[in-house]
Amino acid sequence: MPTLLVPMATTSYLGTGRYKLLPLSLSSSLRACPCPPSPSEAPIPAWPGLRVCNLSLVHRAVLRLGPSRVSAHRRVVTSVARAEPDRLGEENAKQEVDKEKTLLAKEDSALEHQQKASQLKKRIVFGLGIGITVGGVVLAGGWVFTVGLAAAVFLGSREYFELVRSRGITAGMTPPPRYLSRVCSVICAVMPILTLYFGHIDVSVTFAAFVVAIALLLQRENPRFAQLSSAMFGLFYCGYLPCFWVKLRCGLAAPALNTRIGAAWPILLGGQAHWTVGLVATLISISSIIAADTYAFLGGKAFGRTPLTSISPKKTWEGTIAGLGGCVATSVVLSKIFCWPTSLLSPIAFGFLNFFGSIFGDLTESMIKRDAGVKDSGSLIPGHGGILDRVDSYIFTGALAYSFVKIFLPLYGV
């Protein structure tokens, strides 16, 4: 049956665009109006998707329309009907935008996951490469170990003085001149070589500190105490402390006679005389530090709840306890393998000492980076940051390990 589109209620449907269909059998009600519709006012075709309302309500609404208002309402209904596709288009556009946002969020999540996987791959690859290289250098000892340590010290000191010159630190102090920072980096690199050659470093450090102080006092600009303090700490932190690793590895040359591995070591690679107390102590110390960092990371990820300190918010007490346990356990296990030290109490104390030295060095470098306002000390090692980010746990540990073996173990614990 042919139909006629009529508004159900003028005031309530103009804003919503809802239109109702009236059968032409009821068109007699419209013809009852004093003024019949003109030929130009043809019936408006039904718009697709419109709902049919209660016919009685439509009938009453149509009867209320006066003769002069029927045409006007038809024009309003026509304009609103034409606006309906625009409204539907806006809804479709919003749905498309929402879909695009969802797709972009998924793509960002996938990209972030891919970047994390790539970063982890880089860390593993370069970490293994560094570990193999360092292991070979430690086994070689002598000048190979010393020159390798001197190169690491030079790069680390360069990173330290760059941190000192960063915005976060320079906002509250005056850094040393750039030329003096470079001179200090060279002095720090020479210190391990002098330690191997002379067997001690005290006179060299004192002379270096004197030269740096004179250079600061005689500069053209007004000398500042902050310049002197940061330069002196750089000499101590980057130059003097690493020299104890040379004294530990190369200075303790007494053979580790109880070491089974040393007895089977090839003569072409040094034989049993190559396995000294210094080599065994260095291997145990470095391995304990690696275990401490690994177990602290895994324990913090799995059980970390309580923050350790505000200096490094990611470190937790749970991770610290796990790191301590891993460090002591590694020290005890390796002491059994190397048969050194002979007593059980000594490797336990050695493990505790290595752990506290490593965590203190880590927190010290974290404090410097926090004041500098940077995440990493550099970008030399992909996936790991700078040299200081990798060796911060070893800076103080060498001095503690050497002092423990030299002073507290009679005859080096043999």
Automatic annotation (TrEMBL):
Q: Per the record's keyword annotation, is rRNA-binding included, yes or no?
A: no
What are the UniProt keywords, alphabetically?
A: Lipid biosynthesis, Lipid metabolism, Membrane, Nucleotidyltransferase, Phospholipid biosynthesis, Phospholipid metabolism, Transferase, Transmembrane, Transmembrane helix
Pfam families linked: CTP_transf_1
Q: Which reaction does it catalyse?
A: a 1,2-diacyl-sn-glycero-3-phosphate + CTP + H(+) = a CDP-1,2-diacyl-sn-glycerol + diphosphate
Instruction: Give the chief site where it resides.
Output: membrane
What PROSITE patterns does the database record attribute to this sequence?
A: CDS
EC code(s) of this entry: 2.7.7.41
Query: Which Gene Ontology terms of cellular component type are present?
Result: membrane
Q: Name one GO molecular function term.
A: phosphatidate cytidylyltransferase activity
Where's it found, cell-wise? Membrane
Please give the pathway this protein is involved in.
Phospholipid metabolism; CDP-diacylglycerol biosynthesis; CDP-diacylglycerol from sn-glycerol 3-phosphate: step 3/3; Lipid metabolism
Q: How does it sit in the membrane?
A: Multi-pass membrane protein
A GO biological process of this protein is:
CDP-diacylglycerol biosynthetic process
The reply on keyword 4Fe-4S is no
Q: Where are the transmembrane segments?
A: 124-155, 197-218, 230-248, 275-298, 344-363
Q: Which family does it belong to?
A: Belongs to the CDS family.
Protein name, UniProt field = Phosphatidate cytidylyltransferase
Species whose genome carries this gene: Carpinus fangiana
